[in-house]
Amino acid sequence: MIAPEKRIEILKVIAHPVRLKILEDLVQGVKCVSDFEESLDISQPNVSQHLTLLRTNGIIDFFVDGRLKCYFLKEPLIPDLLELLKKQYDEDVPAPACCPVTKKGTYPGGRRR
After folding, report:
1. In this predicted model, what pLDDT tens digit does every residue of 63-77 receive, in sequence order?
2. Could you tell me the fold of the domain covering 4-86?
Protein backbone atom coordinates (compact mmCIF):
# COMPACT_ATOMS: atom_id res chain seq x y z
CA MET A 1 0.00 0.00 0.00
CA ILE A 2 1.24 3.46 -0.89
CA ALA A 3 1.41 5.92 2.00
CA PRO A 4 -0.66 9.11 1.54
CA GLU A 5 2.50 11.24 1.66
CA LYS A 6 4.00 9.19 -1.19
CA ARG A 7 0.82 9.61 -3.28
CA ILE A 8 0.95 13.37 -2.79
CA GLU A 9 4.61 13.46 -3.83
CA ILE A 10 3.89 11.38 -6.94
CA LEU A 11 1.12 13.78 -7.96
CA LYS A 12 3.42 16.77 -7.50
CA VAL A 13 6.19 15.18 -9.55
CA ILE A 14 4.02 14.09 -12.48
CA ALA A 15 2.18 17.44 -12.66
CA HIS A 16 4.15 18.67 -15.69
CA PRO A 17 3.27 18.18 -19.38
CA VAL A 18 6.70 16.81 -20.31
CA ARG A 19 6.77 14.33 -17.43
CA LEU A 20 3.23 13.19 -18.23
CA LYS A 21 4.28 12.55 -21.84
CA ILE A 22 7.38 10.64 -20.67
CA LEU A 23 5.20 8.46 -18.45
CA GLU A 24 2.68 7.88 -21.25
CA ASP A 25 5.58 6.71 -23.45
CA LEU A 26 6.93 4.44 -20.70
CA VAL A 27 3.55 2.78 -20.17
CA GLN A 28 4.05 1.49 -23.74
CA GLY A 29 7.47 0.02 -22.87
CA VAL A 30 11.17 0.72 -22.37
CA LYS A 31 12.56 3.91 -23.96
CA CYS A 32 15.98 5.50 -24.20
CA VAL A 33 16.81 9.22 -24.00
CA SER A 34 16.99 9.63 -27.79
CA ASP A 35 13.43 8.22 -28.07
CA PHE A 36 12.22 10.95 -25.73
CA GLU A 37 14.15 13.68 -27.57
CA GLU A 38 12.31 12.77 -30.77
CA SER A 39 8.82 12.46 -29.29
CA LEU A 40 9.08 15.51 -27.01
CA ASP A 41 11.05 17.84 -29.29
CA ILE A 42 13.16 19.15 -26.39
CA SER A 43 16.90 19.07 -25.74
CA GLN A 44 18.72 16.08 -24.26
CA PRO A 45 19.69 18.00 -21.08
CA ASN A 46 16.05 18.97 -20.54
CA VAL A 47 14.90 15.37 -21.06
CA SER A 48 17.56 14.21 -18.60
CA GLN A 49 16.37 16.69 -15.95
CA HIS A 50 12.83 15.34 -16.15
CA LEU A 51 14.01 11.72 -16.13
CA THR A 52 16.22 12.40 -13.10
CA LEU A 53 13.31 13.89 -11.15
CA LEU A 54 11.08 10.92 -12.00
CA ARG A 55 13.84 8.47 -11.06
CA THR A 56 14.74 10.26 -7.82
CA ASN A 57 11.12 9.89 -6.73
CA GLY A 58 11.02 6.17 -7.52
CA ILE A 59 8.55 6.52 -10.39
CA ILE A 60 10.92 5.20 -13.07
CA ASP A 61 14.30 3.46 -13.20
CA PHE A 62 16.85 2.57 -15.87
CA PHE A 63 19.37 0.01 -17.01
CA VAL A 64 22.40 0.48 -19.26
CA ASP A 65 22.56 -1.35 -22.59
CA GLY A 66 25.94 -0.57 -24.13
CA ARG A 67 25.97 3.20 -24.52
CA LEU A 68 22.21 3.56 -24.05
CA LYS A 69 20.38 4.34 -20.84
CA CYS A 70 17.04 2.56 -21.11
CA TYR A 71 14.22 3.80 -18.85
CA PHE A 72 11.22 1.86 -17.62
CA LEU A 73 8.21 2.47 -15.40
CA LYS A 74 8.58 1.36 -11.78
CA GLU A 75 5.62 2.85 -9.84
CA PRO A 76 2.50 0.65 -10.34
CA LEU A 77 0.11 3.55 -9.64
CA ILE A 78 1.11 5.44 -12.82
CA PRO A 79 -0.78 3.47 -15.51
CA ASP A 80 -4.02 3.81 -13.50
CA LEU A 81 -3.47 7.54 -12.97
CA LEU A 82 -2.77 8.13 -16.66
CA GLU A 83 -5.92 6.24 -17.66
CA LEU A 84 -7.97 8.33 -15.25
CA LEU A 85 -6.50 11.56 -16.63
CA LYS A 86 -7.44 10.55 -20.18
CA LYS A 87 -11.07 9.94 -19.26
CA GLN A 88 -13.56 12.44 -20.70
CA TYR A 89 -16.59 13.61 -18.73
CA ASP A 90 -19.67 15.09 -20.35
CA GLU A 91 -20.89 17.09 -17.37
CA ASP A 92 -20.10 18.19 -13.84
CA VAL A 93 -21.09 16.25 -10.76
CA PRO A 94 -24.69 17.32 -9.95
CA ALA A 95 -25.15 19.78 -7.09
CA PRO A 96 -26.63 18.31 -3.90
CA ALA A 97 -30.31 18.87 -3.23
CA CYS A 98 -29.50 21.08 -0.24
CA CYS A 99 -27.26 23.37 -2.30
CA PRO A 100 -28.09 27.11 -2.49
CA VAL A 101 -27.70 26.83 -6.26
CA THR A 102 -30.56 24.32 -6.56
CA LYS A 103 -32.54 25.97 -3.73
CA LYS A 104 -33.92 22.58 -2.69
CA GLY A 105 -33.87 20.87 0.67
CA THR A 106 -31.79 21.60 3.73
CA TYR A 107 -28.34 20.59 4.87
CA PRO A 108 -28.57 17.02 6.24
CA GLY A 109 -25.84 17.47 8.88
CA GLY A 110 -26.11 19.14 12.25
CA ARG A 111 -25.56 22.89 12.39
CA ARG A 112 -23.06 24.28 14.87
CA ARG A 113 -23.73 27.51 16.65
Report:
1. 999 999 999 999 999
2. Arc Repressor Mutant, subunit A (1.10.10)
